[in-house]
Design brief:
This protein has 281 residues and is mainly beta. The chain has three helices and 18 strands. The radius of gyration is 22 Å and the shape is elongated.
Length: 281
Amino acid sequence: MFLVCNLALIGQEVALEQFAYFSGEEITITTKFEKRVFGRTGELGWQLNSKGSVLGKGKINREDQKVTFKVNELRPGMSIQANLRFSGHGRQRATNLFFFSQDPFSELKILEKTRIGVYPENSPLTQLFEHYKLHHLKLNSLKDYEGQIIYVTGADFTTTPELTDALLNLAIKGVRVIVVAPFKGTFKIKDNDFQRIISYPPQGIKSFRRDFDIPPLASGIASASDGQGLTLQFQENGGGFGAVFVTIGRGSIVFSGWSVENAANPTSIYLLRQYLLMDIR
């Protein structure tokens, strides 16, 4: 993994764009310190620590600012926190990094008996599930689906308005519907059709797990009420809520606006895992 970041020894922490990484692979972070930061020696030391152990250390200079390290592969589903510290000419600054197991699903044996659908059948999520050997059904139609969980991605509620009724009917029957960005259009729900709605701001992803990154919003979510129902308005690459959870009938619908397209970032994968865990009884 290769990452270019702007870092500064000003303030209390090092500014990074990414904080979550997979364990078991070599990671290179290329910093962009200004030359004056290196002082007379022309060097800065760095060290990565976790629970009293040194996971990596070295030096960077004005010409070569690459920090390279590798954290041993963690057990399935496990994550750890590490502290990356830079020091030089009497000054130190640090930030926390989080490392996840590359195998987020294997310990969830109960998933073997959970019927998970992915719609449409050529969804990029099917490739992701196949990579992790997660049992799922590829769906070319939502009619008569009898599973427990269904992932929907790339939904356009403007050009396919019938999709709204199909998802509402699944939720009423007790299915957990997870609509993953990108999606667009509007989604209308009558007041009598839903019991509860919970919305999360873009930073609200941290309420699921504190070690998540905050991925960009691939689809922003806004809501409006006219006294007769709730309308969710979706905008690609727009602002708004990060996610909205709606309880409907015996099931529910999740609209998740956070991008899950970066398979190199564990936040994307573990967010999908989080939605699965919420549904397992």
